[in-house]
Specification:
By secondary structure, the protein is an alpha+beta fold. The protein has one domain. Helix content is 39%, strand content 34%. The protein has 1 helix and 8 strands, in the order αββββββββ. β1 and β2 form a beta hairpin.
């Protein structure tokens, strides 16, 4: 009779160990799924934040002739005039970073004076009439200048 009791004890321990292993596997897979969902959410948030930055900056300076695009040594540059002060916000890409700089409108961009906004390898700005299309690693944002004046 002692042999039968020994087998029942081993069987009970084996079943408990099997359930414990299953619980830990479920915990590991659940944690991995959660981390993947959080990473995707963070990436989506950062993409939307960059698009919102462009939209807010451009629309804040949206006045007749207040927003224009020109070519600089670093590629396309969005210049947003600050009223009639002769200075404005310059947005451009240098060294894999989107930079913003508040400087005189005619001044060439200088990354040493600029503030980094986001990392990107792609930065293109296309104009078509009063529409701007800004493309980065985060995607493309389309903006319409209500006051006109995109060049």
């Amino acid at each position: 009779m002692t042999k039968r009791g020994d087998y029942q004890g081993l069987y009970s321990i084996g079943m408990a160990a099997l359930f414990l292993c299953g619980f830990f596997l479920l915990l590991i897979f659940g944690a991995r799924s959660y981390l993947a969902a959080v990473d995707a959410q963070d990436e989506n948030h950062s993409d939307r934040t960059l698009h919102a930055y462009f939209a807010t900056s451009v629309h804040a300076g949206d006045s007749a002739g207040g927003v224009f695009v020109r070519e600089s040594d670093f590629g396309p540059e969005i210049v947003i005039a600050d009223g009639d002060t002769g200075v404005g916000l310059h947005i451009y890409c240098a060294g894999g970073q989107i930079l913003e700089e508040y400087a005189p409108l005619e001044q060439a961009p200088d990354p040493e004076r600029a503030q980094s906004i986001a990392a990107t390898e792609v930065f293109s700005v296309e104009t078509e009439g009063e529409d701007l299309r800004i493309t980065t690693d985060a995607g493309t944002v389309f903006l319409h200048l209500r006051a006109g004046g995109a060049a």
